[in-house]
Design the sequence.
């Protein structure tokens, strides 16, 4: 995810460790921090929330798999497009107003999606949901760091934890509520985000006024960002190269995420097994949990030991193999479940390593670089569900996975071609806090 224009750098003042005072506990945070962290978790849940209910929506509303997978496309396309402008918006509205605007949109459009009577309406409302999500997640890290006690590093750990919880729990909640009704996950998200909206409105304070300012004026406003800053950033050859790698990688990622519920359901039916929203939710809970664990705990260790580019090539190769196996095993329920969950381990490392590479490859402002990168990569995710359904109908159930594997191979080729622009990446970060910020800047 991307951070707001006010995304902080590492603390430059004294810390508890430096002054000899006891280190603050990560759990002893202001209530506002927990409110933002809760909202972050719910926001990240929205990515995989609809996955278990896609077949149910198809059955209930008489929609084809191609139509229902557009719920991902509209959401991701608008999220990606908005990412190019979120830095500009938050530099003018400020962190709190941007957070609240995003939450209001998510609550409204999630509720409207749940009340819809056609798949086309849900697709449209998911687009509005994506706009709200882009505004919220682009600002959440800055808000947590600004409100937390114990320094930037502890705040960032909380943000990472919220991200991991959201990715893992989203499919599980979608499966539990979806087993009651396909409308349940939409209304559930709207309710949870409404709670978060009220909590942030009440608990999160505006920046304190500066004592040194004239007449007690507020602290200096963040520097205004140009509305075209995200597009101009693509002039940087390293950022452009890695963004294109992410574009094709995310195509394969979302073929796996958005299309897999249908082969899983078909394989279960072929064996006479009951495999509804609840079972799909459990499968993708395992996938999300694996992704969260390796993203936070495994990826940093691997990139320190082996370097960024070797890890990127290895993970891309592993994901290619997973997609090829999925294409070959569409008739095996056990095979599909195992490979989907295992792929989560690779995807977690890949997400973190690719984001680190983006942050190290350019000296552009971090918020601009991460927003631009996220905007491009979400476009790859938006295209995948839109084409996976038609490809499956025309060429067979395994064909979308083969196309996803081909896209990952293209990503590997582009990473190799971009080598001269990326020769400098992989150096140690300035500090552990900088490293944590880089990892979380584009993770989900």
Sequence:
């Amino acid at each position: 995810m991307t951070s707001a224009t006010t995304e902080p750098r590492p603390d430059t003042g004294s810390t508890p460790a430096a002054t000899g005072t006891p280190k603050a506990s990560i759990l002893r945070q202001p209530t506002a921090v927990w409110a933002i962290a809760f909202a972050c978790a719910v926001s990240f849940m929205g990515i995989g929330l609809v996955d278990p209910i896609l077949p149910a929506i198809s059955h209930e509303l008489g929609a084809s798999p191609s139509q229902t997978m557009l719920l991902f496309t509209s959401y991701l396309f608008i999220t990606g497009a908005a990412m190019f402008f979120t830095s500009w918006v938050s530099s003018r509205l400020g962190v709190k107003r941007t957070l609240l605007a995003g939450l209001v949109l998510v609550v409204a459009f999630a509720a409207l999606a749940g009340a819809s009577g056609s798949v086309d309406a849900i697709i449209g409302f998911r687009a509005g949901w994506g706009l709200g999500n882009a505004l919220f997640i682009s600002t959440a890290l800055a808000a947590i760091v600004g409100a937390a006690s114990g320094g930037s590093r502890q705040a960032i750990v909380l943000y990472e934890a919220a991200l991991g919880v959201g990715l893992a729990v989203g499919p599980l909640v979608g499966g539990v509520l979806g087993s009651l009704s396909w409308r349940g996950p939409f209304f559930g998200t709207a309710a949870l985000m409404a709670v978060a909206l009220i909590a942030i409105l009440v608990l999160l304070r505006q920046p304190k006024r500066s004592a040194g300012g004239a007449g007690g004026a507020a602290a200096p406003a963040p520097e205004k960002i140009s509305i075209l800053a995200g597009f101009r950033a693509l002039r940087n050859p390293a950022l452009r190269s890695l963004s294109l790698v992410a574009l094709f990688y995310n195509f394969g990622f979302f073929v796996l995420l958005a299309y897999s519920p249908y082969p899983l359901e078909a394989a279960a039916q072929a064996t006479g097994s009951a495999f509804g929203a609840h079972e799909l939710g459990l499968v993708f809970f395992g996938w999300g949990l694996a992704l969260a664990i390796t993203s936070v705990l495994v990826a940093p260790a691997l990139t320190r030991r082996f370097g960024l580019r070797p890890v990127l090539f290895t993970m891309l190769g592993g994901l290619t193999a997973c997609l090829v196996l999925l294409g070959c095993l569409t008739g095996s329920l056990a095979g599909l479940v195992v490979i989907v969950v295992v792929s989560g381990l690779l995807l977690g490392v890949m997400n973190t390593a690719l984001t680190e590479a983006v942050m190290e490859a350019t000296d552009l402002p971090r918020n601009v670089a991460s927003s631009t990168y996220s905007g491009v990569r979400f476009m790859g995710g938006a295209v995948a569900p839109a084409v996976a359904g038609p490809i499956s109908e025309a060429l067979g159930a395994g064909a979308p996975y083969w196309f996803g594997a081909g896209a990952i191979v293209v990503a590997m080729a582009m990473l190799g071609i971009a080598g001269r622009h990326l020769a400098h990446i992989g150096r140690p970060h300035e500090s552990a806090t900088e490293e944590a910020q880089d990892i979380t800047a584009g993770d989900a």
The radius of gyration is 21 Å. Residues 1-22, 209-219, 428-444 have pLDDT under 50 and may be disordered. DSSP finds 18 helices and no strands in the chain.
